[in-house]
Amino acid sequence: MKIVIAFAVSLLTLLISCQPRSVDLLQTEIDGIAQRMVPDKRVGICNFTLVKGKTNEIVLRGESMFPDATTEVLQLLKSKDITVIDSVVILPDTIHIEKNWGVVSLSVANLRTKPAHSAELASQAIMGTPVRILKEADGWLLIQTPDQYISWTNATSVQPMSRLEISNWRNADRIIYMDTYGTISGDSKLSTVVSDLVAGAIVVRKSENKTIAEITLPDGRSGYVSTLNWLNLKQWKDTVQLIPDKLIVTGKQFLGFPYLWGGTSSKGIDCSGFVKTVCFLNGVVLERDASQQVKHGKDIDISSGWDQLQKGDLLYFGSKDPFRATHTGIYIGDSELIHSSGSVRINSFDPKRENYSKHLSSILIGAKRIIGIPSEQGDLPIKLHSWY
Asked: pLDDT tens digits, residue range 16-67?
């Protein structure tokens, strides 16, 4: 999908007394350090620039989520007898931001590639999603979501929290919403509206009777919800399993929902956002984009078609040479897959079927099985994810 975080290592000005060839070689070495630290620019930040100070001193500027990278660059420069002033900002920026954790407080927070409403929609985050706040700029927050994706969101979308506050939130009696859409009411008769809801929303439960629960939103607002379609988060985390038929049932709840580039919610959903959301509602935190998701799981042989596929396998489409996954869906059995393309729909690989897609059949490049396969960072069970 999209490249969310700009990633560059460059020497903007010749600041040191060496030949251009030496500058190029130095840039290449610094670039190699940063690239090794952050091979995927969507999930990490590491950039350095040498600049000339007011009194001709050499200053190393940039941003890095990895202090070791800064240390390595400084050691490299020292080994070449280049003395610099270290002005690299380590992210999260604890100097300018007191609270570096947060929880999404809107039903759906729109996450963008740049700090502007006109910028490309990179992803979305659901109410109750824990995030790391990396830095702030003019009413926008650069955040990292549990799938490690980095993007910008309006500051009003997130409730900032200290380490103690986020710890208290994690230990609170939380519940998770499992229906596709709903509302939070301002009274126990459910006659007024405080906020809307989408699948996967997490709130704190204050009290509950048989039919109504009083809740607290991440930003402190109070409300009431019907107890239908809510589950105790801790119990759900501890017991939920990735089961093929349940995965398919969840996916079919989104049938007909509109495609939205960058969407990961009931309000609009793209192909990888659909797969990611369906997996999350079945207890797995999957990476954001198809090109990331395809790296996880067990490869399934598709050389002879779909006969080796099992329900719940993740399918990837794109180009084989070079290999690049640009679309994804979930195999639901009997030659069919469910995916988001225009809307969430079901297509078939079988030319005899009415819903046959010649196009999808021609660009199928791989299949991965994550059900019954040991998990790793990138397809991690929510019960093992420390942020939750």
From this structure: 444 455 656 787 899 899 999 999 999 999 999 888 888 888 889 999 999 9
* Mean pLDDT, all residues of the chain: 94
Contact between 253 and 178 (Cβ < 8 Å): no
Active centre residues (catalytic) = 271, 327, 339
Tell me the CA distances in angstroms from 73 to 12, 19, 59, 61, 110, one per residue in order: 17, 20, 12, 11, 35
CATH number at residue 211: 2.30.30.40
DSSP per residue, 150-201: EEEEEGGGEEEE-HHHHHHHHHS-EEEE-SSEEEEBSSTT--S-SEEEETT-
Could you write out the DSSP letters of every residue in 246-315? HHHHHHHTTTTPBP-TT-EETTEE-HHHHHHHHHHTTTEEE-SSHHHHTTSSEE---TT-STT--TT-EE
Q: What are phi and psi of 171, to 5 degrees?
A: -90, -5
Question: Does an H or E element contain 93, and which?
Answer: none
Residue with token string 């659901």:
126
How far is 365 from 294, CA to CA, in rounded Å? 10
User: Which CATH number goes with the domain that contains 41?
Assistant: 3.30.1340.30
Q: Examine the fold and report which residue of 90, 112, 146 is the final residue of a domain before the chain moves on.
A: 90
